[in-house]
């Protein structure tokens, strides 16, 4: 799970999911069976700092769940 406090994040992955989120939005992703993902931090302001504050919580799935179908959800605030 990624929670943004300030700033903007662009997400893309090999399952075709993509989105821009920030300012309190949440992203939930289950990597599962080999999804490749990337997070980029775009410079959206040319006249002020592009502050980014976020936190991530990573959970180690149990062995029986490591190859599940990848999952992705965005929750906008």
Please characterize this protein's 3D structure.
It is a single chain. Helices cover 0% and strands 44% of the residues. The protein is mainly β. A four-stranded antiparallel beta sheet has the order 6-1-4-7, with no helix packed on it. A hairpin with a 4-residue loop joins strand 2 and strand 3. The two termini are 15 Å apart.
SSE layout and pairing:
Elements: E1 2-6, E2 8-13, E3 18-22, E4 26-30, E5 37-40, E6 53-56, E7 71-75
Antiparallel strand pairs: 1-4, 1-6, 2-3, 2-5, 4-7
Q: How many strand segments?
A: 7
Which band does the percent of strand residues land in? Answer: 35-45%
Quick one: biggest sheet? Answer: 4 strands, antiparallel
Output the helix-strand order. EEEEEEE
Q: Describe the strand arrangement of the main beta sheet, using strand numbers.
A: 6-1-4-7
């Amino acid at each position: 799970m990624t929670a943004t406090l300030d700033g903007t994040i662009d997400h893309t992955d090999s399952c075709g999911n993509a989105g821009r989120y920030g300012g309190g939005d949440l992203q939930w992703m289950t990597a599962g069976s080999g999804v490749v993902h990337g997070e980029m931090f775009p410079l959206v302001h040319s006249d002020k700092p592009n502050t980014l504050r976020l936190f991530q919580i990573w959970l180690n799935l149990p062995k029986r769940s490591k190859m599940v179908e990848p999952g992705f959800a965005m929750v906008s605030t």
